[in-house]
Structures are given as structure tokens and as C-alpha cells.
């Protein structure tokens, strides 16, 4: 399936080169810094979920799965990018990971996905009831964590602003999940519906993490807005890349079966781009692959070959890169700093990852 | 089933007399005031959920079912009891109803209850996915609503305190739902486990509504604490009474089948009290009713007769009244006002209602 002659792989090589243009030492330093921040976040999460009851066990299991901790890192780097103190905003960073995991736990129930990050999903490991209630607890955790920032010396007015942003992102996230369901059911969904959906489902929490980081970190409204724009572009780019993974990576790398999108009728950008540009013959072939009852893995391989051959995988990858570039542009109003450099790096790395 | 000679009915008559001791005009005035507050809350909820998308439709359906709107009223009366302005705290009041409905929506999925307030539960009317995501949205709504209070002139510091209380109540609520599951599975559950469970599952949000009302309404920390104690006692009393309803009312009055608790193995106070005091013969009979596969409605009727005959329904009703009395005592530090009088009335009414 991974034919080295297909254009997308060259696109990936370009991006890889673009990241390498940082210089290996620079990239290593950004990676070290991120690893250090992840350790801090994990430490906070472990402390906050230390009790021995069942609710804690369920949430601990979800929080402990090897993740990217992307949202907390974004919040921390955004706070640092406006001169904020990492310790002060750490609870909020951990909280955003909680809200993110809540949406994954609930999503996995809805989609019937049994695997997450290569491990049994929470509802598969425990029960559906545990995954529903555990997810709810992790949503409340975000706001408990925001309240804790007051004890760390963050101004109450900034915390109230952050709460408003977090609550808005949560509503958008739910909106995005509903739209995903509608797209699944409405076969004529367009590329624009998909983009609006992922802006809600994924970019909203990225946007909120960055903007909350800027606000709690003491930034101006303009800085918080710039960070919000950065988070939006990054989130959309990240989600498009995520949806590209079944066509770019092995199932071992992504930690869940490639045919999961097909099994769930999740129509993503490569498919929608290909379908929108298809003549009657190709359209019929695509429709058949989505609607037939044949072997999932086989259908996935045929779909991947089709989307790759017709350039849809490449075009989707180009879209992702465009949003990543928008994200980097949005950072211009911020002063140069290692944190801003990390944020720029994340935007490039988001669209070149294969897991 | 409702034999006028069983003691519980005399107990209900006593409470009814106790409420009537208010004087009919006084009681009517409290009811009018509550009806007026419910109108204000409904107006706010309708305005906040006015968009035409699917998420709004689902949440609107949940919010529109004929409810008691008890938590918003408690928040408003608590705010007024410390001299607060109803308009300023109205968003928070509406928000507590959202969080309450979220827990009902998620609970109904977990319990497989198809009816709620006499109407199809959200997951039955729409889908499980809609009920999960809609519930999540209503949790976020609580915090969006709290943030809105800033625009109404509530001090940021008070809002941050309120957010912490709301988030803590949410965590306790989830804890309570987990405990309920454990009690369901662990046959030897005791009365103390049950009381701890309902303190989390029900009283936590009552406590938070009262305490948040006191805080946002401008009350002192002592006043907010008194209101929190009131809410705790009221919540426990309310939940015990709720669990008594299948033994006191008709299914039409409660809006769901009486055998629902039995179908879900929900062991409530009358059962646990009876089982704890039972000799071997009665214990075996009770166990058989819970564990047998026989006709649900028939088992419920036999269980109700048994619990009534052995005085367990009466003893549970007495427990409820004890907590209601505690709630009223907790209000002593507050100045006399129509709002305090309403709160006192609610505590008495909570344990005399039959729906």
C-alpha cells in the first residue's frame, strides 16, 4: 500500500526536510523541552488522581494511556510565550488533558471503538457506565483545575475569562461530535461541512488551550487572540493529518485498526475531496466501497489505493499544510522566544507525523 | 397496595399537617413565588438554547420535560436569602438545571430507563450518542453560565469560588454514580454506603446550588456554609423520599414504572433497612425477590407489601424527615426573610411529596 512513488510521500519528505531545517540540535532541544513539560503535566495528573476508588482508577487508566499531551503542552507554551509562569497555570494544563480524554472516552462508546492508543478503550476495559461517568468526571476536573489556579496566584478575572473559553470550547466540541454524526448519516456531506466539523471537534480545544494559556499567563487580549488563531489553524491541520494516518501509517503506529473509519462510516477529507471531484464511474466505485458489506480490511486497502491514485491523499495533505502555515503566521504578534519557536515547530510537526 | 392502615400513610398525613401549619395563604404565597422563579429560569433556558441545530434540539427536549427546577430555585432563594440580586445570578441558576439534566440523561443510559418524567428518555427519543453528547454539552453549559454572571456584575472572585464548588459537586456526583453501581453489584451493601452514595449523587448538587447562590449573591463565607449544610440535609431527605415513591405513589404520579428500581437492582433505603434487621427467613424472602427472574410488577408488589408490613417504609420516611429537620436547623444563622421561609418550606415539602 505504501508505494514510494505516490506523491504524498514526497510531500511528507518535504515537510520532514522543513522540520529538519531547524537544525538537529534545535529540534532536539524543542523535543527535550516538550518532554520536560509532559513530565510536569503527568506529575500533576498523578497527584490530582491519587485516591484509590473506582472513579479514580477508571480516570487514571484513561489518563495513563501513552498520549501526546498536546493540549497541556500548548497551554503551557502559550502561557510562557506571553511571559507567564508555568507553575501558576499547570493545573489548567492538566485540566485540558482531562477534558480531551473525556471526549475520547465518550467518542469511543459512540463509535464502538474498542482500541485507543493501542490499548483497550475505557468502555472495553471497564464498562460503558464507567466510561460515561469517568468522562463526566474529567470534564468537571477541567473546571476544578481552573479554580485551583486562583490559589497559585492567577487573577480571578483572568480565571473567569478562561472558564468562559473552556466552556465555549466544550460546547463546540459537542457540536462537532453531533456534526460528525450528521456527516456520517448524510452521504452528500461536503468538504466545507467536514472542515466546520473538525474546527469544532478538534480545533476548538486546541484554540481554547492556547488562548487560555495566553490569558492565564498574563498576556494581553491581542496576544490571547493571536494564540487562539494559532490553535485553530493547528487544530484543523492536526485533525486532517489524523484522518490521513490510515492512508500513511501502519495500524501498529496509530494504535487502532485502519478500517475503523470505514467501519464507523467516518468520511474524512481524502474521501470527500475525491468524491467531490469524481466522475460517475469513480463516484460509484467510492460509494460502493463505503456502502458494501464486504471485508473491512479489504475495502480499506482498495479505498486507500483509490484515494492515493487519484491524488486525494496528497490534496488533503496540502490542505493540512496550509492550515499549519496559517497557524505559524498567527504567531507574528508574539515576541520571539523559545516557546514561540516550540509552537512553530508543533505546527510543522503536526502535519508530518505518522502517528 | 396502599392500605390506609399502614403506618407510612399516617406519617405522610403528619407531614402534610406540618406543611399546612404554614397557613394556606402562606403556602400559596410560597408556591406562587416558586412558580414565578421557575418562569424566570425557563425563560433563561429557552434563550440560552434557542439555536436550531441538533444539539440544541436534544438539550431543549431534555430541558423542556416537566421538571421541578428544584436546583435553580434553591440557588435563587439562597442568593436572595443573603440579600443577592436574582437577575445577577440567574444564569448560574439555569446552569445548575443543565448539569442536573446531564446527570439524568447519562444515568438513564446506564440504567436503561426508557421513561423520564413520563416522557421517553433522551436516549430513547433520540439516540444513545445524542444523550451522551447532549449531557456533556449541558455540563459545559453550567460553566458557561457561571462565566456569564461576570457580565451581570458579580465579582470575579465570587465566580471563581462558585466554579470550584460546581466542579467539586460534579466530581461528587460522578463518585455517587460509581457508588450506586457498586451497591448494585455488592449485595451486602449497608445503609451507611447508601447514605454516602446519595449524599454524593443527589445532595452534592443541592449543596452546591445553595452554596453557590449564597456566594454569588454576596453572602459571607459563614452564610454560604450554612446554606451548604441546608442543601446537604435537603438533598439527602429529597433522595430518600424519591426512593420511597415506588412504595407511596402510583406509576402515573412518578412518571416511570415502579418496578424500575427492581429491574435495575437499585437497592434503596427501605430495602436496606429491612434487610439489615431481618431474621434468616425474611432475609431469604427479600433476597429471593431481588434475585428471582419472575414477573417484575408482581415482585415489586410483593416487595412493597413486605417492606411496608415490616415497618421499613415508615423507618425510611422517618430518616428522610430527620434530614429535612437538619436542613431547617442549618438555616438559623440566616436573617428571617421570605426566601428563608421558602427554603424551610421546601425541606418540609420534600419529604411529604408523592411525585
UniProtKB/TrEMBL annotation, chains A, B:
InterPro entries according to UniProt: Isoprenoid_synthase_dom_sf (IPR008949), Polyprenyl_synt (IPR000092), Polyprenyl_synt_CS (IPR033749)
Gene Ontology biological process terms in this record: isoprenoid biosynthetic process
A Pfam family recorded for this sequence: polyprenyl_synt
GO molecular function: metal ion binding; prenyltransferase activity
Keywords: Magnesium, Metal-binding, Transferase
Highest taxon, organism lineage: Bacteria
Cofactor section: Mg(2+)
Recorded family membership: Belongs to the FPP/GGPP synthase family.
Protein name: Polyprenyl synthetase family protein
Record organism: Streptomyces sporangiiformans
Amino acid at each position: 500500500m505504501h508505494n514510494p512513488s505516490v506523491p504524498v510521500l514526497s510531500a511528507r519528505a518535504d515537510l520532514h526536510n522543513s522540520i529538519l531545517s531547524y537544525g538537529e540540535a534545535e529540534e532536539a532541544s524543542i523535543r527535550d523541552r516538550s518532554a520536560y513539560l509532559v513530565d510536569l503535566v503527568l506529575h500533576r495528573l498523578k497527584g490530582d488522581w491519587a485516591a484509590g476508588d473506582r472513579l479514580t482508577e477508571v480516570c487514571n487508566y484513561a489518563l495513563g494511556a501513552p498520549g501526546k499531551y498536546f493540549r497541556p503542552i500548548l497551554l503551557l507554551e502559550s502561557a510562557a510565550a506571553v511571559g507567564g509562569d508555568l507553575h501558576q497555570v499547570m493545573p489548567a494544563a492538566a485540566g485540558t488533558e482531562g477534558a480531551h480524554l473525556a471526549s475520547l472516552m465518550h467518542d469511543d462508546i459512540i463509535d464502538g471503538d474498542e482500541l485507543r492508543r493501542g490499548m483497550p478503550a475505557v468502555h472495553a476495559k471497564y464498562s460503558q457506565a464507567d466510561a460515561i461517568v469517568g468522562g463526566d468526571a474529567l470534564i468537571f476536573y477541567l473546571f476544578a483545575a481552573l479554580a485551583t489556579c486562583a490559589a497559585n496566584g492567577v487573577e480571578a478575572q483572568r480565571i473567569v475569562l478562561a472558564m468562559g473559553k473552556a466552556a465555549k470550547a466544550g460546547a463546540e466540541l459537542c457540536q462537532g461530535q453531533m456534526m460528525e454524526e450528521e456527516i456520517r448519516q448524510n452521504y452528500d456531506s461536503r468538504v466545507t461541512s467536514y472542515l466546520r466539523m473538525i474546527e469544532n471537534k478538534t480545533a476548538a480545544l486546541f484554540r481554547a488551550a492556547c488562548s487560555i494559556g495566553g490569558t492565564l499567563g498574563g498576556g494581553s487580549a491581542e496576544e490571547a487572540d493571536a494564540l487562539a488563531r494559532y490553535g485553530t489553524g493547528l487544530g484543523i491541520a492536526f485533525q486532517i493529518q489524523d484522518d490521513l494516518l490510515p492512508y500513511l501509517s501502519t495500524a501498529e503506529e496509530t494504535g487502532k485498526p485502519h478500517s475503523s473509519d470505514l467501519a464507523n462510516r467516518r468520511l474524512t477529507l481524502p474521501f470527500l475531496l475525491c468524491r467531490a471531484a469524481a466522475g460517475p464511474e469513480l463516484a460509484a466505485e467510492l460509494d460502493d466501497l463505503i456502502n458494501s458489506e464486504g471485508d473491512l480490511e479489504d475495502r480499506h486497502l482498495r479505498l486507500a489505493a483509490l484515494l492515493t491514485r487519484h491524488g486525494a491523499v496528497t490534496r488533503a495533505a496540502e490542505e493540512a499544510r496550509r492550515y499549519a502555515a496559517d497557524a505559524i503566521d498567527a504567531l507574528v504578534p508574539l515576541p520571539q522566544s523559545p516557546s514561540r519557536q516550540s509552537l512553530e515547530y508543533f505546527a510543522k510537526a503536526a502535519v508530518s507525523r505518522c502517528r
